[in-house]
Write a structure and sequence with these properties.
With 123 residues, the protein is an all-alpha fold. Helix content is 85%, strand content 0%. It contains one helix and no strands. The chain has one helix spanning 19-122. The longest helix has 104 residues, at 19-122.
Amino acid sequence: NDKQKPGGSVTLRVVCRIMKPIETEIKLGHTEKQLECKIAEKEATEAVLDESEKLRKDAIDQLSEKEQDIIKKAEELAEQQRLHGTELSAKDEEILNKASEIESKIQEIEEVQLALQAAELVK
């Protein structure tokens, strides 16, 4: 019996059955916190997306108003251009009439001068 165990040694086998439920509870708590964070992140994302959508709609409405203003201004300018065109046409016609009168008077003067020259030649 050379292989005798030394005296006074005790072998213990300890199984802790309390640790597993505590580990599970810790993991559950961690998972719950992760879930809460994900829910908060989702809610924040939705709020930001809603705000973004609202701003986009506001921008579209403002652009629509600007487009209407631009269309109105374009119509006003077209009307003014038409009026100016009418005024210019009337002035052009008036100038043409005056030019015709001046040509008639020039022709009359030339005829009178020719008649005077003919009268002087007859003398």
